[in-house]
Amino acid sequence: MEDLSFVPDLPSGPLDKYRKTSSFDWKRLKLALEGDNIELLKLKYKIWLTLEKDPLFAHSTVSPSVDEQKRITQLQLKRINEYRFHTTEMVNSSYSRRTRTIMTINEAVQSLNPSVSVKMAIGIYLFSNALLSLGTERHHKFYESTFVKRETVASFALTEIAHGSDARLMRTTATYDPQHKQFVIHTPDFEAAKCWVGNLGRTCTHTLLFAQLITPDGTNHGLHGFLVPIRNPETMETNPGLIVGDMGEKIGVNGIDNGFIMFNQYRIPRENLLNRTADVTEDGVYESSFSDPSRILGAALENLSAGRIGIMQESCHSIASAVTIAIRYAATRMQFGERDNEIPLIEYELHQWRLFGYVSAAVVFRMYIENFAKIYLDIVEKSNSGMKVDNLSEAVSEIHAMVSCSKPLLTWTVLAAAQQCREACGGHGYLKCANLGDIRSNHEATVTYEGDNNVLSQQTGNWLLRQFESARGSRSVDSPLHTVAFLLDWEKCLAARFRCTSTQELKTREFIITTYKWLLCWLLKQTHEKYEAQLAKGLSKFEARTKCQVYKWRELTKTYAEYLALIFFLESLDKKDKELQPVLETMFCLYGLWSLDQHLVELYQGGYSQGESLARLLREAVLQLCAALQPDVVSVVDALAPTDFVLNSVLGKSDGNLYQNLQKAFFSQPGAFERAAWWRDIVNVRSKI
Ligand SMILES: Cc1cc2nc3c(=O)[nH]c(=O)nc-3n(C[C@H](O)[C@H](O)[C@H](O)COP(=O)(O)OP(=O)(O)OC[C@H]3O[C@@H](n4cnc5c(N)ncnc54)[C@H](O)[C@@H]3O)c2cc1C
């Protein structure tokens, strides 16, 4: 058995009461949540314990000004680079190992300061990844300076003021000038200014720009990626020909300097076109390995899959922190009962029901994404190294469909969890030093960036419907990852009916998976029929899709994402330590039934069940599972939690000394006991009282 003594023991205190009832060793679960990769778990602790000792990472009790947050974030990124957690050995290792390690560094940093991890993800990883996949030899020096030497911080400029979700209609142009062998970048008006670009406002020296490529004959070849210098790296002055600004204060991640930019006939060398899939000769002739320009954009944006997986991993860490704080608070906070025998909140069924579903989501999501990331990295590695990957293009489409619905499911669930955890900590949860407010507002933007959730999940619907049509027609599906192989038996799946008579029968893999398959087939059939009916009315495919989103397409993609989380979790569960399997099985059933509870309307509407028993038994089973989880739940969050320094919550400390910690926080608040500096402004001098 691996030696886990590098994970610090937890202090003894009021939480012991619930830790003693646990059925498993929390450190073993912690390792399991890290994909049983002890090196990665060690790296995470090394990062956390190193940064804890560095004054640059000390938490401030009051929010610094927005500008100061940007300065600190940039300095923290610089310091993290200097610590070289990304060792030379790691930098030179295989794609899969290198990327998994980067992801771990990112996760560790995100739990401490999400602005730093976003800055790092865009400024280093997204940029350097794009150079590798879209660029060629000639761009390698930029990869070296960004990823290997960490001298450059970059940005990713796609969104424009008037166009975000529909990238095809972006209006920034890059026109080739054969005489000077340069591209001329131009912004026609403010509506075409690039905006929201992270790191652009103050700190980046280069950007990866997406602009419409126009050749001298006037042909527009669609959006392409260009490497564009923005600032002089020595003076940080913006280059002439650019209008660059910072977008100002946001409602979260204020350490990131999101910016806007307008180009005025700004020239860059021809070589700055990222030319792996398409190039322009010196004379201005366009050459591409794709005949369809939209496929070039598709290939370019495919890069975002790794970024979206990164967002999901970060989300898993945000929900882990949120539920840790709320559960530790619930175990130490008493309300009602007798004077000397008050009841801890965690004992109340209502409180369990509000929180435990999110605890199970935190565990299920973490193991799902861990498992999925491995498969994803393996496929990319094989394909990059020229090895044969069976059905590669089908696998890429399936992965894109999976990512496009899973990022919405995870980011939305985490947002709801953060809000519920905040409320579950009552008034004290509203304190800045509880950290739930920051977790929530720093997380919130993930539902929008790298693809707005509502728009992104529509792409999953397209893929699912294609598979359904193919299963109905030619009796085949393109699902190399086997996520929808069951559609070949869609009629059989749809014939399933609810026949359980006890909650015991619902708390099983078989019931949950069969019910999900029924739901998916039913939602697919319904969506397909509605879509076909719209087409039959003469609507275009685009118009027909817009008429099928509500209650159909959207519900379908959410259900598919939940199903993915469950099947990938199960696959991991079976490989885990025997001691951990019972609690993981409880998590599986709780997440599965808690999610199915939200689909009762469809289950009845589609005739899966009649009468009251499904709703009654399902809800009874959820409550039974909450009760069953209660003895283990404090240890589950111990396994999910980062160190106390990283968690940074007065309510969530692992010693459980809630009131001593609160007193310390109140009493050490700067100026807490001082007369207000503005006391004269409020004194009524004539008062004789
Ligand atoms: C903190 C933050 C950081 C960001 N960082 C970057 C960055 O570094 N680089 C970059 O290029 N961009 C960045 N963005 C921009 C981000 O990627 C876009 O905001 C996002 O893609 C959504 O585009 P939009 O804002 O234009 O929304 P819109 O497309 O205008 O969408 C508005 C609303 O309309 C809905 N909607 C749109 N189309 C449809 C439809 N067909 N059917 C139904 N509903 C629809 C959407 O669901 C959404 O709720 C960032 C944004 C934020 C908030």
Count, helices: 25
Q: What's the pLDDT, averaged over the residues?
A: 94
- Specify the CATH homologous superfamily of the domain at 457-632: Butyryl-CoA Dehydrogenase, subunit A, domain 3
Strand content: 5-15%
CATH architecture of the domain at 457-632: Up-down Bundle
Our measurement of the CA-to-CA distance between the termini, rounded to an integer number of angstroms, reads 74 Å
Radius of gyration from the alpha-carbon trace, in angstroms: 27 Å
CATH T-level fold name of the domain at 457-632 = Butyryl-CoA Dehydrogenase, subunit A, domain 3
CATH class of the domain at 457-632: Mainly Alpha
User: Would you identify the regions where 5 or more consecutive residues have pLDDT less than 50?
Assistant: none
Ions and ligands: flavin-adenine dinucleotide
Biggest sheet record: 6 strands, mixed
The percent range for helix content is 40-55%
C-alpha geometry:
globular
List how many beta strands DSSP finds. 13
- The helix-and-strand class reads alpha+beta
